[in-house]
């Protein structure tokens, strides 16, 4: 494995293969029926993912494939991350305008969504 998701919660970066995460565990924790809860906890998870974030995040550092394994992957995914962040901020601005927030209120919301996840 060239860029494995580390054991533990931090950093939540790198490649998570099928079965690595349990997406149904949150649902299981909200159920009162023990038998049904057990079914959620033991359900197979067929998703995989490669998580990245801001390169400036000191806690959640990125875990990259070596450049020679997949040339351009780091640059392309970093570019995509920031393009999606800009899109999310445009949507956030539209929402703050629709809520008729003051500029100070809108700024306080924008400051929570810098893309750096501090």
Automatic annotation (TrEMBL):
Name the InterPro entries for this protein.
IPNS-like_sf
Location of the region described as Disordered in the Swiss-Prot/TrEMBL record: 1-28
Which Gene3D superfamilies does the UniProt record give?
Answer: B-lactam Antibiotic, Isopenicillin N Synthase, Chain
The protein's name is Uncharacterized protein
